[in-house]
Amino acid sequence: MNFHPEKLPQERLAALAEDAKRRLAAKRRADLPRIIIGMATCGLAAGASETRAAFEQALAEQNLEALIIPVGCLGHCYAEPLVVIENPGFPPIAYHSVTPGKAKALVKSFLAEGDPLFEYVLAALEENDLLPSIADFPRFYLEQRVVMEKCGSIDPADLKEYLSRGGYAGLVRVLGLPPGEIVGVLSESGLRGRGGAGFPTGAKWELARKVEGSKKTVICNADEGDPGAYMDRTLLESNPHQLLEGLAICAYSVGAADAVVYVRAEYPLAVKTISRAIAQAEQANLLGKGILGANFDLEVKVFQGSGAFVCGEETALIESLEGKRGMPRFRPPYPVEHGLWGRPTVINNVKTLSTVPAIIEKGAQWFRTIGTPNSPGTAIFSVVGNVTRPGLVEIPMGTTLRTLIFEICGGIPRQKQFKAVQIGGPSGGCLPESLLDTPVDFDSLTRAGAMMGSGGLVVMDEESCMVNVARYFLDFTQNESCGKCTFCRIGTRHLLNILDRITKGEGREGDLELLETLGRDIKEGALCGLGKTAPNPILTSLKYFRSEYEAHIREKRCPSMMCRALTAYYIDPDKCARGCEACVGCCPVDAIFTAKGRKKAIDQGLCVKCGECVVSCPPEYDAVKRVSPAHLAPVVERPK
Amino acid sequence: MVRLTVDEKEIEAEEGQNLLQVCLENGITVPHLCFLEGMENSPASCRLCFVEIEGMDCPVPSCQTVVHDGMVVNTQSPAVRHLQRSALQLLLSAHRVDCSDCPANKRCALQQLAKLLGIPLKVKHLESLAGEVDTRMGHPLLAYDAGRCVLCGRCLYACAKHQEHPLLTFVRRGFSTRVDFKGKTDPAELPCLACLACVEICPVSALGFAGKTLGAA
Questions:
Q1: Which residues of chain A have pLDDT under 70?
Q2: pLDDT value at residue B138
Q3: Pick from B47, B169, B173: CB nearest A482
Q4: Are A518 and A494 in contact (CB under 8 A)?
Q5: What is the pLDDT of residue B184?
Q6: Looking at residues B96-117, what average pLDDT do you find?
Q7: pLDDT at residue B211 tops 80
Q8: What value, to the nearest 5°, has the Cα angle with vertex A77 and ends A72 and A82?
Q9: Minimum CA–CA partner of B60 in chain A
Q10: C-alpha distances in angstroms, A116 versus A140, A270, A322?
């Protein structure tokens, strides 16, 4: 691509976008049907590769021509593999759970014969007379997509798609502005860091901009580590250029010529996608030297972290980038003054940077119309656990947890009761039903004892034991502690050991008070954010679910019947069907025997409480029961 | 020069100095393990040197606090002492308390700290975790007792100061963190026997010669 050197950046971008549109049009004939397959990690895990192969095979068999376009993730994980088919003459239709078999059927019926197979349809993407559209479903219409707007509708491997949809316009706009003005727009927009702590992004950039020093660095923190959280991965895999645009805007605003995307090596597809995107952008002169003819250079590198959770903490991340052991440093000095190799460094989360292009393009006032006054904009959550429609959800800040869980994500499956929602991962807290009307924003969640975190949200139904959940998260943080400071290294180990005892029925009077005092000391005394927030799952569950802890300690009873040591299985002889052997074969330890009247019974001495017999017992009998405390299970003697 | 008040005593200090250093120079005792006098950047990992500073809502580690004019410091407030005791009790709960068999007996930092903070060496309310550690070390000449080690990092600091290429490092993570030697140097070429700065500086005799009584150096 040759340009005249005197051309302005906007002219160069316009030419690039024109060229992209032309090439895309040449590559994709308008009269052909398009099969758009979600092929981010979640889609691939659900079998999108096999689905794609099935489409290709069926097209060949039917001797049909169609375009297969791989895209990122639409966020509807419950419906993966998700396929959108744009068949001329029909509205674009989304199909859920498209197995290879369904793929073949769709080619045969829809593409060849014009029958859109209503039984496989999720929704049409546009209003039409034929099918319900996404505007009819709360999972779509209650969402507001700012950051994820293009996710799942563009091919992340093709820069042309992003360009043809107005990409990099924000970067071009800032190239003509003084950096102070751009930072001013960010400050005015009220954007707060989406990595968890919610520090105002504009203020951070302003500090970095004003700091003396010619060599500055911008780092994108994509070291996402919370269990059950995958927002950053999806953004990297679905729309990498949006992130790069945000990164470039940030670098230009603070005066940096170097940028690093720190992404964990466990995200191989994300690493591949972002690396490819960087190469494409450099080739198109959107990154590199003299970007779009302006006096602005930016070299972006990808660094693969080795998967230590603590490296998501910014100072530990810097240590790791410098080749040292990933251990946090004391702050202050903050990275904006003294960061990577001692240079001023801005570290922003993937979601924060991905929000920036939209703010630059549409303005701070527009951004402030979304969300709440103190937390403007949208929040992206990965909603997982016991919900009907899990996945990635982008909602305006201020939406209540109730709306998010029950309306957007369809509530609790299998007629179970809601029990708690865990927000903010291992640093967050468990909120009970009474707090479901808490609006999702930085301040309200912190007041409730949880925190925004990076956006992991785990929904739990009545069968979840809160002590066990706290134990799970402590096990995680305790494993991921870097071992540097006393409180985190030894304190979290004690917390875990106490919880371990409680779930095994060895809890003692005084344990809860000890958990509380030790938890508070760790919060106050630990060196970094990991340690300071590690006791949160315990402290919030103690606050809202104390009676469950007490039942474990005093009655040796697990109210949710989840803790194995406190639970026993038995077979109700009144329900057990004479002669039925369904449970016997599935017991891995041969604990089930035939008792009086050819009914089955469980040998409590052998039973390992795996629960296989509950699953195998035909629902019409429903004879296997659980009970806690374990000694309440009736003892049936094995016949000699 | 800046003027500050520590425990109601007026003190003068150089600008840019860290508060812990200033306190120690002026004979004010502040418990600490990981900080060494003259250290440029303290790791702030032992979590013992907390002080309360007027205008700040919670105790801060003094080793990472730069003095400023008019600073008012309390090194013994109840909140400070509570955190220090809590940290020391955690360290003791992971420490094998067998003072009579330990070469550090009577000069041990933990004994001194316990005396200062008025807590017994046996921590009643916490289970002992000392049995969970393992004591192997890859160094051919040094022996390491993880059951005694408090992971203050003084040995790493001393090693880095005395040797061009430091030989000691932290390995593993979380509670399993320990000090180890990560190298394949021929024992004959190791500079360690002539140096032993790490053995000397260890406050709890967790490092010593291999094959000899720990800490006999």
A1: 1-6
A2: 74
A3: B173
A4: yes
A5: 73
A6: 94
A7: no
A8: 60
A9: A525
A10: 21, 33, 55
Distance from CA of A303 to the nearest CA of B (A): 22
Q: How would DSSP label each residue in B72-137?
A: EEESS-HHHHHHHHHHHHHHHHTS---GGG-TTTTT-HHHHHHHHHT--SS-SSS---GGG-----
pLDDT confidence of residue A5 = 56
Specify the higher pLDDT residue, A456 or B216. A456
Q: What is the CATH number of the domain that holds A513?
A: 1.20.1440.230
DSSP assigned state of B210: T
The DSSP call for residue A408 is I
Question: What is the C-alpha separation between A118 and B177, in angstroms, rounded?
Answer: 58
The label of the residue with tokens 């394949």 reads: B184
Q: Which residues of B touch A491 (CB under 8 A)?
A: 90
Which residues in A lie closer than 8 A to residue B93 (C-beta atoms)? 490, 494
Position B205 pLDDT exceeds 50: yes
Interface membership of B17 toward A (CB under 8 Å): no
Last residue of a domain, one of A500, A527, A554: A554
Q: Band of the pLDDT at B210, cuts 50, 70, 90? A: confident
- Tell whether A346 and A400 lie within a shared domain: no
Beta-carbon separation of B82 and A478 below 8 A: no
Instruction: Please report residues of A whose CB lies closer than 8 A to that of B94.
Output: 490, 493
Any domain includes A332: yes
| Judgement on whether residues A437 and A471 belong to the same structural domain of the protein | no
- Interchain contact, B58 vs A524, CB within 8 Å: yes
Round to whole Å and give the CA distance between A337 and A331: 11
**Could you give the number of structural domains in chain A?**
5
Site of tokens 């910014």: A314
Cβ-Cβ contacts under 8 Å for A308 (sequence gap 6 or more): A225, A316, A320, A326, A480, A482, B173
For residue A6, what pLDDT is reported?
67
Looking at every residue in chain B, the average pLDDT score rounds to: 90
Q: What is the pLDDT of residue B134?
A: 60
Residue with tokens 């007996």: B105
Judged by a CB distance cut-off of 8 A, whether residue B61 touches chain A is yes
Residues A170 and A193: their CA atoms lie apart, in Å, by 19
For residue A596, the model assigns a pLDDT of 86
Separation in Å, CA B80 to CA A114, A600, B76? 76, 62, 6
Q: How far is A172 from chain B (nearest CA, A)?
A: 42
By C-alpha distance, the chain A residue nearest B64 is A330
**Distance between CA atoms of A336 and A204, rounded to whole angstroms?**
7
Query: CB-hemisphere CA count at 13 Å for A119?
Result: 4
Nearest to B167 by CA among B147, B190, B144, B186: B190
- Extract the tokens encoding B33: 């393990």
pLDDT at A531: 95
Residue A416 is part of which domain span?
378-464
DSSP secondary structure code for residue A290 in this structure:
S
Reported as a pLDDT band with limits 50, 70 and 90, residue B213 is very low
Residue A65: CA count within 13 A, CB half-sphere:
5
Q: Quick one: pLDDT at residue A579?
A: 86
Helix (H/G/I), strand (E/B), else coil: A461: strand
Confidence of residue B135 (pLDDT cuts 50, 70, 90): low
A431 & A360 share domain: no
Element containing residue A457 per DSSP (H, E):
strand A456-461
Give me the residue from B64, B127, B169 closest to A330, CB to CB.
Answer: B64
Identity of residue A384: V
| Structural domains of chain B, ranges and CATH numbers in brackets | 2-76 (3.10.20.740), 130-209 (3.30.70.20)
Residues in a beta bridge with A138: none
CA distances A427 to A196, A197, A445, B79, Å, are 9, 11, 12, 24
- ipTM for the predicted complex comes to 0.95
